[in-house]
Amino acid sequence: MLSQRFQSRILNIFLRFFQNFQQRKIRIFSLLFAVGIGLVLFVSACSSGTNQQATTTPTEQATSTPNQSPAVSSNTVRIGFQKAGTILSALKTRGDLEKALAASGASVTWSEFPSGPPMLEAINSGSIDFGYTGEAPPIFAQAAGTPLVYVAYDPWSTKAEAILVHKDSPIKTVADLKGKKVAFAKGSNTNYLVVKALEKAGLQYTDIQAVTLQPADGRAAFEGKNVDAWAIWDPYLALAEKATGARALTDATGLAPNRGYYLAAKSFVDAHADTLKIVLDEVKKTSDWAKNNPSEVAKFLAPALGIDAAVLEVAEKRRDYGVLTITDEVIAKQQEIADAFYKIKLIPKQINVKDIVWRN
């Protein structure tokens, strides 16, 4: 038999153990309870945030989803330009548009693009309101469902784009391009020049190895002789001729109109036609100045473009200028380009150019 004293000691040990165990249970339960409350609050907050986000998501999606233009700012015109695009580059540098818009309480922002297609992608995404490209990009954009509008055109020049080969190239005619690598910016005006030049030479578009590159990459590929030919526009054309002695197989004469187009987001045209007219008026003033002062334009743009003024002057003197109303004849020529692209499956569906022409 255990002594009473020993039994008492054993009993005390069990009692302390039980008390400690109960205290631990309480602490553990309290901890679990606190964690549970925290999780409930967190989930509740997340749910609240999700519900709040759900009320704003449609608007945010409308801003970023292609083919849906966002609400147009009433006091800011967002313009896309190409550094090599004479008129808008000059307009930006001169600051005349800012002054004209200020009188109506509006302002302007500028975004630079390497060529027309990415600029029109920006219109599609709702990032810009207005821009200028060659004749082919708006056709690709319309076929893709971009909500844009032709608002004016620029006659430019058939001499201002060409298909170049190296000065020592054995390629003498467009027909000699069969099986060769030809670089150009996909969806650009020179894309159409290549199509028409091949057609005239009795070749199919599939007879060449098309290498689609933006101007800077195209120049590097051409100068590095990684491609056999390069279809390009001024002033890159004039620069390549001067820097490398490149030969032109053909320019656009008799092949493509090589017009430029001023384009705007449909939402901007619908909401701010008066502001658009101010923009076009200032563009025309700059165009008139450029037409009468090719040497001044060249000197003015040389620092921004990093191209010698003498080279730019060559480009300026072989182009035309204007901010002209789009006529039925102009529409018909654009339709010819669209039909040609559809025929060779460069665009997925037939389009009607006249459907997106601004009738101001």
UniProtKB/TrEMBL annotation:
Family: Belongs to the bacterial solute-binding protein SsuA/TauA family.
Keyword field: Membrane, Signal, Transmembrane, Transmembrane helix, Transport
Function comment: Part of a binding-protein-dependent transport system for aliphatic sulfonates. Putative binding protein.
Transmembrane segments: 26-45
Pfam families: NMT1
Bias type Low complexity, positions: 52-67
Keyword hit for tRNA-binding: no
Protein name: Putative aliphatic sulfonates-binding protein
Gene Ontology cellular-component terms listed: membrane; periplasmic space
GO molecular function, one term: ATPase-coupled transmembrane transporter activity
